[in-house]
Design goal:
The structure holds two protein chains of two kinds.
Chain A (H helix, E strand, L loop, with lengths): L9 H45 L16 H7 L15 H8 L20 H6 L9 E12 L23 E16 L4 E10 L4 E14 L5 E8 L25 H4 L23 E10 L3 E10 L20 E2 L2 E13 L2 E15 L15 E15 L3 E15 L2 H5 L7 E15 L3 E12 L3 H4 L7 E13 L2 E12 L21 E9 L1
Antiparallel strand pairs in A: 1-2, 1-17, 2-3, 3-4, 4-5, 5-6, 6-7, 7-9, 8-10, 9-10, 10-11, 11-12, 12-13, 13-14, 14-15, 15-16, 16-17
Chain B lengths: L1 H24 L23 H15 L18 H12 L6 H11 L4 H12 L10 H16 L31 H13 L5 H8 L3 H13 L9 H6 L13 H9 L8 H11 L6 E8 L4 E7 L2 E4 L1
Antiparallel strand pairs in B: 1-2, 2-3
The chains are: A alpha+beta, B mainly alpha.
Chain lengths: ~525, ~325
Amino acid sequence: MTPISLTTSPMEKKETMTENSKRKIFLKVARVGLVAYFVLFALWQLPPLIHGLRHLCPLRSDGIQETLAVPSFARQTGFACEVCHTVFPELTPFGRRFKLNGYTLTTKPADVSDTSVTSSTEAAKRNLTLSYVSPLSYDVQIAYSKYNVAPPDKNAGTKGGPPAGAQTAGDAFLFPEQISLYYAGRVTDDIGTWIQMTYSQPAGSLGIDNTELRYTHHSADRKWLWGTFANNTPGMEDVYNTALSAFGVPMFNVPSLYNFGAGSSAASGGLRGPLYQSGTFTNSAGGGEYLWYNDSLYVEFAGYHSGVPGTIATGNTALNATGALGAISGVAPKARVSYEEDWGRNALEVGAMAMDTEFVPPAIGVASMNSPTTANQYMDTGFDWQYQYIGDENIVSFIGSGVNERQSNNPLFVESGLYSNAIDNLYQTSLTAEYYYKRKYGALVNFVNTTGTKDALMNGANGAPNNQYWVFELDYMPWLNTKFILQYDAYTIVDGNQSPFYGTPAASKASANNTLVLGLWMDF
Amino acid sequence: MENIMKKFKILTSFALLAFIVFGTSFNYSAFADDNFSSPDEKPFNPASYDAHLLIDRACSVCHGVNGISKWPFIPNLAAQDKTYLESQLKAFRMRARADRYAQAEMWGMAQPLTDSEITAIADYFSSLKAPTGRTSELSLAATYFGESIFKTGFPKRSVPACNTCHKLNGEGDVDIPRLAGQHADYIERELKEFRNGFRSNDIMHFIAQNMSNNEIKAISLYLSSLHTPNPNMPPQTQAASTNAPAIAMAAAPAAQVAAASSTPTPEATPTPSHKKFMFFTTSNNQNLKCQKVSGSDKKMKLKCSFLKKSVNL
């Protein structure tokens, strides 16, 4: 073994210096090379790449060869994406039928089949006929976002942290913001599925996203359709794109200050909203049944149970306790009714929803209260409507919803000073207007207003849970599966305009949260 | 209030339970695949299980079990000519028919179909009861323009009478489509697709080139109002059948619909009542404006303008 010298001779120093300069030169060359490579790649590879993408599958409705946008389902049906979507993720009346029929529509012959199967339905049911192709597809979202005011650093002023008042970067470039892998489509003649695995950047982890299984059956005259489903998010089964659904538009959600940055002093979980829309329920397991009459009346009953019990508190084996998301105690029933009327190119839906949840809030912090029986009750009732005009060139949508959440706080929590009131109410209204020209250019405006009972212990400072914001979006879709998004999120009220949010004067206004987003969303 | 909550919870739990029980123990005789054709229709004898399943799971989702589609831009297939259905499905399969909706929807659907499946599908839809003509104030007004185009065409402009090829009552011929009772939106769109050449057919391209948008609209509305029974079905079966189209035209009074459905030929449509109907509904329609010139309710003269053209009725 060579002895390690602790001192460096002048000769060695000289060598290190030359090595350093060599390294610098090498890095420079490497950098230039890398840039040159990317430029050349762009010049040489992009045209064939685009060409390849354009010829992957047909087609755009104006007769030009285009890619299909709903990849798994499109592979299964051979439909262009415009058959089921106005512009993804919003569904057309036919898209809703496709979903309610359990994603099973196809004319492709089943791969696993027996000649005897062709003679009887019973035989076909016995011999499970699997899909011809594995319905796989991918979804990529890339986002660059720039905040109006750079968020203050959470660790600023703490021991070993940056100096007080320090701010984090004012922008974020997430490449990708999200990548999803889907297995979506027909499993058997009656069973269809949607399994989505997502890697998302802020969390930096791969996990199960929206997942659903459906079994459906219809009457001979197609007047009645009965279906049963199991999924992990309430509202995933919903076929409309209002805020009552898991696929409410606008859906391209980039991290704002509140869920990506420092977190507000008051509601560290982000903007207040109804419980059923929160992250808690993406961890739940539920199922239900629905009946659909004459392509218009839809009635659904479902129930949801916590999928992940959360972190167990020290010395406590009870459900949840200090988990980051909280947990549903028992089963939360959900009911949904909607009515759709289609005439010509128009479709109008009106509907209502109710969900009753016994919920153990996260991070109670008092060990003695960590029990599945000490829960708050959340009664969510909402109504929604959706109007669509789907013309050959012009598409217009008006989407709206209103939700009332009645939160009955557990007396034990109220006594212990976790909540000021026995009952807190929250109202949220969401209005969206969309316009698309030739499914190529689009504009969207979304307005969300949240008000509610003042509860200083729950919401901090002035106690108001109020939020109000606008989303303005411009879309450009060179192909039906590719959406370039320019979005501006403008906040007018955040946490009842408590001031200051973070202790820095610059960030004390609601508008400090305003975010400009440039995004790309591709499905293939 | 808590009591109400509890009651709601109990109710929803019961409903959920009832649904589960209902779902698992329900007698599926009405839902059974084997019970596919309704008693009203000619019994369907599928050539194979696959074709049966195809119609049930694929075709009927858009075109309706009765071959009558819910959406005006998706064609009715009921009583359509069998040869025409076959030739179109094959044209979709080989991508020869390339109008907008054909590309978006039918190319993918038809691509995996075999010849025998295509025959079975064509067999099924061609054997169904013909769609009842849909009358609306617009179609009644357009009748006076559409009917003349249908019966005489525009000889000076090389637009022959439609009924030369599509038969007297628009029922179609071998490999020539039935137009009677078809959705007006669909006919209008296809005529325009013929005109712009996306749907290739030399004869129809030539004819549609010489027609204006208003004329196309008028003929489409007229054709959609025709009720011509399926020539392949015994007349009694069709008269006894009560299957109404998926959407009844809200604007048309019941008597009008009944009159239209009971008259087998367009010639027999009662003109006086049309006039009366038009007279009373003028204010509701921006495209149609009528003025009473003279006469009583039973025999009056009207001066109407429809889509900026005027006519004396």
